[in-house]
Amino acid sequence: MPFDNRKHLRNHFVLGFVPFGGDFDDFICPFISDMKRLEQGIVMNILKEDCWIVAGLGCITVELPQGNDLTGIKWHGAIKGCRTCLVAKENATDENLDIASISRYHHITDIQFEDMFAAPTLMQRSDIAKEYGLRNSLPVLDQLQRERHLQSPQDIYHIMAGIASKFLKLTIAMLSPDGEERFLKFWKSFEYPHQWSKLPNPISHIESFMMSDCLQLVMVMPFILNRSLTTNCFKSLILAKLQERTELQRNQVVNAIVRCWSIVAKCSQLAFKPSLTSSDYEELEKTLKIELQFLTWMFPDFVSLPNLHACLHLLQHARTFGTLTNTAVGIKEMVHRIFKNMVPHTNRKNVELDLLKRYTTLQSIRHLDWFIIEDSLEEDNEEPEVNSQSSRIQNIKLKKPVSAHNTMIKTNTEIFQSDLALSYSSFGFHASLINKSCKFYEGASYMQNEGYFEVKCHLHKNDVVTIQNGHDSRYAIIKVIFKHKGNDDHYYPFIYIDWFEDTNRKHAKLDCPLFILWRNDNSRRKIFPLTVVDEIHKTFFIHDCNARCQDGNHGLDNNRYLKNEFFFKAV
Predict the structure, then answer these.
(1) Which domain covers residue 178, as residue numbers?
(2) Which domain of life is it from (predicted)?
(3) Within a domain: residue 121?
């Protein structure tokens, strides 16, 4: 199944709900019974043919405490509470740990359990359990064929969101009243991706943030703090403690905090990357080590933090399962949160049955909605479909008309008409253009054929896209979308762009590439068919503000932009 399709709720199935206070071992018994049959093999009729099917348990992805339960390990508050290694709690974030030498292995854990059960007294059993961090009984899933430690990886969704949430609370707690006011000023004026839902105020509503909110905030916090933080933004006592701990000057402490946020954001981006190359594995290992060093160096709250220790095992999990997203539980956690919010509206007597009924009803309504309101969701000011210049892109619809005057684009110039003619030539129309007028729009939607499935894409003014220019892909920002009537009396869609140029330099604190936006450069082609767009909503650029930028209004003389390399999709 394609990775994006795995994130659809319709492709997830709820087996049941464990009632509050219920016994998970009792609940999971029917599942274990079925899995035992599959391990032995059963005959199934598939496409009118009898097939012999053998299956086994793949992997189990849960948060830290429940994951330890299912591997027979004590919780992370114990002396040895990691389900992947035997590290002592006080050394959990020691950067010199030799993970390979202290890792847990299935056959060795089996021997440890045997020694514990063979102990003649309860005191001796307790001592052995304490020595190895074992629970007093075997986990229920040991009835199945599995490698208990390898097939119970740490979940990046909980790990990264936990680190982000803790760091966010620490950062906000350090701010003085003036610092909070300044932070909120830049928070409100920041240029978020337009497809994001508006997040609540992180200072007053931090406790209501979901894990997905924290992960989303990680992508932009380095840039917001880079704009807003000064030495006067911190409480004097906290700033003095940070100076004493790090032996840095006041300005250097501010820069170090921004740098810490950029490292946390980079780790999250790499962890949620849908595919990894050999160089990505190396970068992931390097960045995770830097994150551990920086956070424990600056903030004592991160020393021995279980989430930070779990990051030491992410490289192994990534190599075992290909990527870390293959074992992430983002969708499951969102569903869990939805059902937790439903509980107060149930009779609170037979909650699990009530939730299953609600889930079945929601699934039925969702399937009906796809047919009932599929077309009604489109905006009222949508224009009729225009012709596509590529068989790969179809059903193009333009939205939100704007006047030519507001676009500040002159269509009657020789440069505009020449670029438009070049665009027509690119898809086989070489004749001189008869029609001159154009109609401008702020957005467009279309269906893109990806070979084995179709994706609905949305394009908007000010989106940064990738355009193939010769042998290279380059970044450009869309100033406007327009349609033009060709000589065959059909309308075709085009985009008018400004180019970004890579300076081959990086920002000192954020470690993001610096680009120059050429707004009034008429020496480069600016008009392309809409169908040349390679990637949408995968790259975001942030203005590299200076003192002339006020309240979200960027100085036009400053054309420096930062490529946001921290952007990722958690869910």
Answers:
(1) 156-327
(2) Eukaryota
(3) yes
